[in-house]
Design brief:
Distance between the termini: 52 Å
Strand order of the largest sheet: 1-2-3
Structural class: mainly alpha
Order of helices and strands: HHHHHHHEEHE
Largest sheet: 3 strands, mixed
Shape: elongated
Oligomer: single chain
Radius of gyration: 24 Å
Helix content: 55-70%
Number of helices: 8
């Protein structure tokens, strides 16, 4: 966050859209991780609250959805300013901007190294993570790692743009990198909105999982599924409601035992 502030202020003062875009791109991930952290704290605080029927994992999903909406506005603002700079170029103080961008790259590389070590230290615990909170934490850690890798990439783009402007007099390269950064943030925002929005609206599971359930249940000629609802209640965990029709119904435990190998199912109701 500290480096993000430095890059945004320096990009504005030194008239570098590439540096400004790198700072704003860093802010998108800082905001996303900050909201995710707050959501995780809230999810942990209310983990035993019985008012949450399927646990508090969706608190984190809601945080991601809010973050995506806010950051979509950042992408639009970056694109508008970059186009303006393309049409009306400003004098860039290349030496200062390059120095700040280099420090930003160093901060991102250190973050990548720290999260790489953290991911390795958590590998042994992933197999034992059965609760929604533990699984979500591990997924967040992998997401954080990908975020800082992306930040390091945009820092490299900023440095390339500034070097091109300084030594090749390609001043157009700087606002162009601003547009590239805006597109990257926009794509990330779109994918995050699609994923989190689908979960919050209880969009059904993919057909592959439904077919696995159907194949497991309809192992005899007497039983068929007349209605099914499958939706996500955790990072890789699903709830399932099945309505079965059978001439000679078995005990419910017999039907549930047919689903025991589908590990993603954590809440199953059968009628």
């Amino acid at each position: 966050v500290g480096m993000m502030i430095v890059e945004i202020v320096a990009g504005w003062l030194f008239n570098s859209m590439a540096l400004l875009a790198d700072g704003w791109h860093m802010s998108t991930h800082a905001a996303a991780l900050g909201i995710s952290w707050l959501a995780f704290v809230a999810a942990r605080r209310y983990a035993l609250d019985r008012r949450f029927a399927f646990g508090t994992w969706k608190v984190e999903v809601l945080g991601g959805f809010v973050s995506a909406i806010l950051l979509g506005g950042v992408a639009v603002a970056m694109a508008v300013v970059s186009v303006e700079r393309l049409l009306h170029p400003a004098t860039i103080r290349f030496n200062q901007a390059i120095a700040v961008a280099a420090v930003g790259l160093l901060v991102n590389l250190v973050s990548v190294f720290m999260l790489t070590e953290r991911r390795h230290s958590h590998t042994h615990n992933e197999a034992a993570a059965h609760s929604h909170g533990d699984s979500g934490g591990n997924l967040n850690l992998r997401a954080a790692y990908l975020h800082v890798v992306a930040d390091a990439f945009t820092s490299i783009l900023a440095i390339v743009a500034l070097l091109g402007g300084k030594f090749m007099n390609w001043t157009w390269l700087d606002p162009l990198m601003g547009l590239v950064g805006a597109v990257m943030i926009g794509n990330w925002t779109r994918s995050l909105l699609r994923e989190t929005g689908g979960i919050l609206l209880d969009r059904g599971a993919d057909e592959g999982l439904k077919e696995k359930i159907r194949a497991a249940i309809e192992t005899d000629t007497d039983t068929r599924i007349s209605d099914t609802h499958v939706w996500r209640v955790g990072p890789d965990q699903y709830a399932c409601i099945l309505a079965l029709v059978a001439g000679k119904p078995l005990r419910l435990e017999a039907y549930k035992s047919r689903l025991k190998d589908i590990r993603q199912l954590v809440h199953v109701s059968i009628e």
